[in-house]
Amino acid sequence: MAGQIPTNGLVAFVKSECPTCALVEPVLRRLADAGEITVVSQDDPSFPATVSGVVDDTSLEWSFRSAIEAVPTLLRLEAGRESARAVGWAREEWRQITGIRDLGNDLPELRPGCGAKNVEPGVREQLIARYGDSGLGSRRIAYGGWDDPAEMCFERGWTDGLPVVPPTDARILNMLSGTSRRPDEVVGEVPPNLRPCTVEKVAINAVMAGCKPEYMPVVLAALEAALEPKFTLHGLLCSTCFSGPVIVVNGPIARAIGMNSGVNALGQGNRANATIGRALQLIVRNVGGGIPGGIDRATLGNPGKYTFCFAEDESDPEWEPLSVRRGMSPGVDAVTLFQGDGIQAFIDQRSRTPEELTRSLASSLFAVGHPKLCEFTNAMLVLSPEHYAIFRAAGWTRRRIEDELDRALIRPGRDLVYGAQGIGEGIAPTRADDMVRKFWPGGLLIVRAGGEAGLFSAILAGWTGGRFRDESQPITREIRS
Amino acid sequence: MIDNSFMRDPTAETSGTRRARLAPPPSLDGKTVALLDIGKMRGDEFIDQIERRFAERGIATRRYRKPTNTRVAPTELLQRIATETQVAVVALSD
Known about the structure:
The structure holds two protein chains of two kinds. By secondary structure, chain A is an alpha+beta fold. Chain A has helices spanning 19-23, 25-33, 61-65, 91-98, 123-131, 149-155, 169-176, 199-209, 216-227, 233-238, 252-256, 271-286, 322-325, 354-365, 385-393, 398-408, and strands spanning 9-14, 37-41, 55-56, 70-71, 73-78, 81-87, 89-90, 110-111, 114-115, 140-142, 186-190, 195-198, 244-250, 309-311, 334-347, 379-383, 410-412, 435-437, 444-448, 456-462, 475-478. In chain A, a hairpin with a 2-residue loop joins strand 5 and strand 6. Chain B is an alpha/beta fold. Chain B has helices at residues 43-56, 75-84; strands at residues 6-8, 32-37, 60-65, 87-91. Chain B has a domain at 32-91. Chain B has a three-stranded parallel sheet with strand order 3-2-4, sandwiched between helices. Chain B is extended.
């Protein structure tokens, strides 16, 4: 910071790119020539050129400490305290503050100012971090000038194996601006260690994951859903199975934050999709202590455990969104968390009727987990636009599709018991005389997503914990700001 | 822009802020010990002595040498030591 501002007298904050600041230059020169004012420049200490002794505030410290919101701003200070303020050019106010009755005779009566540089997006948080009180409670991890903070995050075990964004105060404060919730509010206790997780810890991990502040409500809702006892996050985490949390976002927020429900919706390349799912996994790792090879005992895992998050395509008003099917009101922002594995491709380029397509889908859905295992896992069917178009053309709604699939997914128990078809795996011999459903009622979740072209849908197998239908279920939760 | 010289801890803060060192193994039984000569004078004499002592106790050793003490060890050398041995003794000074 170059130069000082006085504790008594007049101080004007300006920036060179502000037309109103240029307009008032003659006024500033007159006051400066009389030794009555200190001019503080936010961006260029050579501006105003006709005023000498301009204070360089390109660091914006004085602007921050004086809570400047627009330029020009005229302050009167008395014993270091502000006694008067005029924002923009308001001739009468400037005359009152300066006590000069003919000040600015040649200027218009009123001209609004421009936004101050210290309140530009992203700048304010950096200034709080540098000169103010961040109010953050998480402990500081110091690094030296030669340290690479990204490498430090790896060394401390804070990452999922990919680089993370180092969580500095400015970034965390910026992230917290995305929610109205207090930083010290405890969202819940994260397994496996059941450590309390505050909104601040969520923000820190969201920074590391690469989130934007506007994703925070989705991340918070996803965490809340994951911490619902019925989601059984602990079991999902320590399982030898493949599964991890799959997040489906419904409601206007999905479009507002730019989520992808279209081309490559389950793939890479969209920041919101990628980082929201990743933030949840980093919270589980860092706050909960869920470390692969530690409590996470997955035999193979799946790439979705880095991140698995997408939005449902709600462009068709005839389609009942997943969240609405699961009890939310239409138009309400919501997340649904599903305990899911990776993607099993469903390819059918020949079926042209809804009946054919239903039988075809059922034949692939039988393979979830194992073709002979029934009432064992849930599943999510991600229906692509071209497959959905076959149902829609026949007037089939979501409910009709669900009902028809349910009927098509029932088989005689005798074909499924242990050893039947020469395969050891299967269901208990006591079910041999039953007609057996593949999924529990409500255990098949249908979501619409995908690009316009391609008769390809996706099946996500559910976690084996789903066989305990009263203990482990997908969770849908409203997203709050 | 990294605007200050600290980050905030993303964890539940149940462990120290400093990275913990690996605990020494409770026993050297069945382990292979790397003996690393960093290339300073008489490092080899030290390594000879240590090698003899380990041999007397029946502990396997493997010798390694940095190309020069003026540079950090090549990554390939560190990877070899990490994959071929479980413990390392480094002759640091002359």
